[in-house]
Structure formats: structure tokens, C-alpha cells
Write a structure and sequence with these properties.
This protein is mainly alpha-helical. It is built from 5 helices and 2 strands; from the N terminus they run H-H-H-H-E-E-H. The longest helix has 31 residues.
Length: 133
């Protein structure tokens, strides 16, 4: 470990609950969500789909935004809600966070990240919805 670098045991207290392999998975999942959103948006606009159908863009937009937010922030929403962290590789690295204050902060952060992803999805969906037919 480099001098001045935090140890993995300190990460939950710093608002981090994801290891490298979990971050990679969420980044890929988020990227796929963004691509699906873009393709779906283009198809709906080019094919002049009814506005009601364009609302379906919100689902992959939300999932893509949530995946990228989690990867960038090194924080899993579900782990935050459950009060666990996974700083190792895979399910074997999942550990319970014992500090109640940290668990409470993680739950609050989880809700804020879900809300942020929802706002992003609503903005993207609104842009596709209002695009002229």
C-alpha cells in the first residue's frame, strides 16, 4: 500500500462500498443502459412513434444512469440499503458494516443516488417525449 493511501477497511466510513470487479460490472451495465436509451430514442423519433410509447425510454435511462453513478461513485445502492460492503471480488467479499452511523449514512446516500438517477431518467425521457413527431 502506498503512503497516504487509505486501507480498504476504511472505505465504508468514507462512503465507498464497492470493489473493482463490482465497479466494472456496474460501469458495463450503465453503459449498456445508455446505448439502449440512445438507440431506442432514435428509433422512436425516426419512426415517429406515439408520444406515449416514447415514455419507455425512461426505463433504460434510469438503469443506465444508476449503473454509471454507482460505478463512478464506487457505491452500490443495494449494498448501502442492506448495510454491507463488497471490497473484495464477488460475493465472497461481502461484509456487514457494524457501525450504525455509517450504515445510516449509506442508506441516505443510496436514496439520494436513486433520486439522482430518477431525475436524470425523467429529463432524458422528457427530451425524447417533446421531440417533434
Amino acid at each position: 500500500m502506498k503512503v497516504g493511501q487509505d486501507s480498504p477497511e476504511e472505505f465504508p466510513a468514507q462512503g465507498v462500498n464497492l470493489g473493482a470487479s463490482d465497479r466494472r460490472f456496474r460501469g458495463i451495465f450503465g453503459g449498456i443502459g445508455v446505448v439502449v436509451t440512445a438507440v431506442l430514442s432514435c428509433v422512436f423519433v425516426i419512426c415517429e412513434a406515439p408520444r406515449e410509447m416514447r415514455l419507455f425510454v425512461g426505463i433504460p435511462a434510469f438503469l443506465g444512469a444508476l449503473g454509471l453513478i454507482q460505478a463512478a461513485g464506487r457505491f452500490c445502492v443495494m449494498y448501502g440499503i442492506l448495510g454491507v460492503c463488497s471490497l473484495g471480488d464477488g460475493a465472497c467479499g461481502i461484509q456487514r458494516i457494524d457501525d450504525e452511523t455509517v450504515r445510516r449514512r449509506h442508506r441516505r446516500k443510496s436514496m439520494l443516488l436513486v433520486l439522482l438517477a430518477l431525475v436524470i431518467a425523467l429529463i432524458v425521457t422528457a427530451m425524447v417525449y417533446v421531440f417533434p413527431e
